[in-house]
Amino acid sequence: MTKREREDTPTHKLLYFDFPGKAEAIRLALTHADVAFEDHRFADRAEFQALKASGRLQFGQVPALEVESNGKTVVLTQSAAILRYVAKLNDSANLYPADPLLAARVDAVCDLEADAFVGVRVSKYKERFGFGFLNEDKYAGELAGVAEALNKDVVPRHLTNLAKVLEAGKTGWLAGTPEPSIADFVWGPVLDSINNGWTGDANALTAFPSLRTFHARFREIPSVKAYYYA
Ligand SMILES: N[C@@H](CCC(=O)N[C@@H](CS)C(=O)NCC(=O)O)C(=O)O
């Protein structure tokens, strides 16, 4: 019996709130890679606070993926790290390239998502970033100015760059991979959120036909379609 055969198949439990947010890419990637998982959604914020207080979350943040194997439990955090872990569970799903150059492109497109929305996240979740004082009425004018800058300049600038890499890659997938990679799974749900008004401009994709084509194609990936419509 080989070492591998003696090892249990790990079980997976994803911990997050009951909305897409940062967990949706992981839910979809696990589904795409055919990895069974429990999609645990907190009943309320108190459940999250209790988990955070328990010290089990490395950085006090979710999403977290609880991996149980050979009687041991490991709790993974940081969504990009979790996505790379998921990709390694099933090589045949081709979610993360073996080629180092292509892998770096995939990482860059994942990191672009963080850059594109850091301003949106700070302005929406002010307390988390130390800007809670901006909730005072007297700053309403400044906040309106920030919202305008985000929607007219910052987010479109990053979407322009995303559209450029998509078009340059010529495969129809964001990082130019032959098949959908974790970069596509990061951005697909974010484009849903944009269309749902998360950034403050539900029409932000109108100016980016190639991103709209990508988005529609992403939603047609059989595993993604089955996740939402089966
Ligand atoms: N870079 C982290 C960010 C995770 C993050 O910001 N998670 C939020 C929820 S979406 C969180 O846990 N915040 C802590 C809190 O609300 O106390 C990732 O990608 O996983």
UniProtKB/TrEMBL annotation:
Residues 99-230 form the GST C-terminal domain. Coiled coil: none annotated. One of its GO terms (molecular function) is glutathione transferase activity. Pfam families: GST_C_3, GST_N. InterPro entries: Glutathione-S-Trfase_C-like, Glutathione-S-Trfase_C_sf, Glutathione_S-Trfase, Glutathione_S-Trfase_N, GST_C, GST_superfamily, Thioredoxin-like_sf. Residues 10-94 form the GST N-terminal domain. One of its GO terms (biological process) is glutathione metabolic process. PANTHER family: GLUTATHIONE S-TRANSFERASE. This is Glutathione transferase. It comes from Pelagomonas calceolata.
